[in-house]
Write a structure and sequence with these properties.
- With 157 residues, this protein is mainly β.
- 4% of the residues lie in helices and 59% in strands.
- The chain contains one helix and ten strands.
- A hairpin with a 2-residue loop joins strand 5 and strand 6.
- It starts with 7 loop residues before the first helix and ends with a strand.
Length: 157
C-alpha cells in the first residue's frame, strides 16, 4: 500500500504536522505533542521489514488488526522456481505473552505458499511477529531457500 493523501484534521488532532513535499505530495511529521492511539506520548520507532527479497524468491509477513483484541497474521513466500516441501514458523508477542505457529508439508513443485493465523490477544497494545530465519522451502533441484526473517508490528485494539 502507498500513502495517497493526508487528512489534516485527523493528523493535527493527534499532534502531527502536515508538510508538503517539493513535488506537492503531503506527509505527516510528529510534533512534541503527538500521541499514540492509546493516548501515550508518540515515540517514533523503526518499522521492521515485512517483505524480504533474496536470490531464490521473497517472503512476507503482515499483521492485520481485526478488532476485539484479535489480529490476523498473514505470511508466505513466492519462489523463483518450484519447491517440493517447506517448513515455516512464526513467533509473536504482545504485552500478555508470546507464542508460535508452524506450517509445513509437501508443495508439489509449487512456486508459492500462503498461510494465515488468527490470534486472540489479552488487550489493546502493540503486537510483534516474525518468521524464523530458519524457515525454508526445499526447491525441486535440492537447494534450500531460507525465509530471510520478515517481521511486522501492529497496534491491536
Amino acid at each position: 500500500m502507498t500513502v495517497r493523501g493526508v487528512d489534516r484534521k485527523v493528523a493535527e488532532s493527534h499532534g502531527f504536522k502536515v508538510v508538503t513535499n517539493p513535488d506537492g505530495t503531503q506527509r505527516v511529521v510528529p510534533t512534541a505533542s503527538a500521541t499514540n492511539p492509546d493516548g501515550s506520548p508518540y515515540k517514533q520507532t523503526v518499522r521492521p521489514d515485512n517483505s524480504v527479497e533474496g536470490d531464490c524468491g521473497d517472503s512476507y509477513l503482515w499483521i492485520h488488526a481485526v478488532g476485539g483484541y484479535v489480529s490476523e497474521i498473514e505470511t508466505g513466500f513466492d519462489l523463483d522456481q518450484g519447491a517440493v516441501a517447506y517448513h515455516w514458523q512464526v513467533n509473536r508477542s504482545d504485552n500478555w505473552g508470546s507464542d508460535s505457529h508452524s506450517w509445513g508439508g509437501g508443495l508439489g513443485v509449487d512456486t508459492s505458499w500462503h498461510g494465515e493465523w488468527d490470534v486472540h490477544g489479552g488487550g489493546a497494545g502493540w503486537e510483534t511477529a516474525g518468521v524464523l530465519p530458519s524457515s525454508d522451502a526445499l526447491l525441486w533441484d535440492g537447494e534450500i531457500c531460507s525465509s530471510g526473517g520478515p517481521s511486522d508490528s501492529e497496534y491491536i485494539i
